Amino acid sequence: MIQHLLTIDNLRVNFKTYGGEVQAVRGVSFYVDKGETVAIVGESGCGKSVTAQAIMGLIPNPPGKIVGGKVVFEGAQISHLPKKELLGIRGTQIGMVFQDPMTALNPTMKVGTQIVEGFVRSHQVSREEARKRAIEMLSLVGIPDPEKRIDQYPHQFSGGMRQRVVIAIALACQPKLVIADEPTTALDVTIQAQILDLLKRLQEEQELSVVIITHDLGVVAEIAHRMVVMYAGMVVETGTVEDVFANPRHPYTWGLMRSLPRLDEGEKQRLIPIEGSPPDLFNPPVGCPFAARCDFAMEICEQQMPVTSEFGRGHQAACWLHDPRAPRIEELVAAGRQGI
Amino acid sequence: MTEALLDVRDLKKYFSLGTGFDLKAVDGVSFTINKGETFGLVGESGCGKSTLGRTIIRLYDHTDGEVLFKGKNVHQLRGKEAGQFNRDAQMIFQDPQASLNPRMTVEDIIAEGLDIHHLNSGMRRERVAELLHLVGLHKDHAQRFPHEFSGGQRQRIGIARALAVEPEFIIADEPISALDVSIQAQVVNLLEDLQHDRGLTYLFIAHDLSMVKHISNRIGVMYLGKMVELASSYELYTRPLHPYTQALLSSVPVPDPTVKRERIVLQGDLPSPANKPSGCGFRTRCPLVQPRCAEEVPKWQEAQPGHWLACHLIES
């Protein structure tokens, strides 16, 4: 059996707050293979960033805690590792690109120093070698004039350039996996296009595996091979990007796709929003978390968590509509997909 | 002939940097907005689109040019007329978290305009309940505070506040960018319904091109304080003429993995508005730049009926 590079198995993360315990991630499972880009999509509060933090061992404890499941990287379990051992993986084996390049960089350190900080620690290299490496990394991410730029400070860079520096930091130790948490959300569209192209190029050149977290389905279609749709701390649908876009199986995915205006829409059509708002994760519903907003909700949806159905090529959805006992499933699907 | 509700003529707004230099945030913009239409304004951050909106509604004083609202220059209004303009034109802000006073109840937030313009006449509570109902909230929400609501609900409160004084014209400055995708559609539909029922006119400022295209009748594209192209939204999407508009449209990721497009990726970043390039502002990133672009500022002219443009390439 082929081993996945990264496997998340039934991960559960809770946060203790004054208001009670929030179940931010409630049994998330997915995998990432070598050389592929997996996108995690979902709305704010669905647990996508917490999942990423759990992979990196960045959940602040307290208040957060991994209460169940595991993260396996290259066959070894990395959740619950002591901090010292985690340091051998974090930054060197797994790199991280953060959302906001304004706050991800240290304003008092030259960018060159920040880029090679991890590299110097893990490789014990000399000053000259480190400097060479920093210049190499800056030119890799397409920053002109790298010899001059490495001695500058983050405030001397524009937003897009800073995000390139953050990517250079993530790649400095030649990690096998890069986790990018909303890497383009803070950027303008023309800059976003540059950064997406860069990530795509690096991923292909360096055979990287990338987990990209985003709420933008356009970004997913542009860059990812497979996608994981999350809702209220759970995975509701997963599959290749082609399968999920062409043939979405979960009502939440239908809703997401329908609610987007298309740039190429001809006649003006009314948008079809998903009514209501996501459930409260202090006290999540017993059944399907989407049932309250779902057009096709049945009695069982509110009582029992749906089982996951498989549609081939790893395309899965957690929805009662795909249970063999569910009524008129084809008609419901056809009706629900109208207007996509 | 459609009637122009708002006529912006060569409007300029400079901010003094205190060093003898001015930051030309809005540098000579002209356009009109017709009654009952939605005019979309797009551009990247720092292009001056928010400043333009705020100058139109008199949150900022203008530097030069004029804004005519129903034929009257808004920057010269005084006294009663100024008060009337403040009622007629309202604003919805981007961040529903920051634009609602956390210490006021929803009722006080919504009724503040009523109080100021002496419109409550003993029916304050009923009026607030009516407005809450209009934007899809419940009248019991009136006594709550903003922090008790979700982002989408807060944006609805902001909309109710804007509607309270029965305006004709609403400037919506990125009203949906802070919201989740599934909630954005709810708010956009609400704005469209209100426009339909009350004949409102919108200036819709956003950077999300697909949403602007969806909601607008006409769209203006801004770059470095200047309008570079203006056309009906269908025309602008199907036949963009300015190289910047073309690049902007092609950089929007399409949520469809089967679409493979030739993308124009612009090199470099937006220049600082405090230190603009000479001639055409876009020339430093333009793929079709010519020597002439550095010397002359392209004229704002009508290339085809209703399709305005500032680019040397199209000038005949």
TrEMBL record, chain B:
NCBIfam families: oligo_HPY (TIGR01727). The keyword Transport applies. Gene3D superfamilies: P-loop containing nucleotide triphosphate hydrolases. It comes from Brevibacillus porteri. Residues 6-249 form the ABC transporter domain. This is Oligopeptide ABC transporter ATP-binding protein OppF. Keywords: ATP-binding, Nucleotide-binding, Transport. One of its GO terms (molecular function) is ATP binding. Belongs to the ABC transporter superfamily. It holds the Pfam family oligo_HPY.
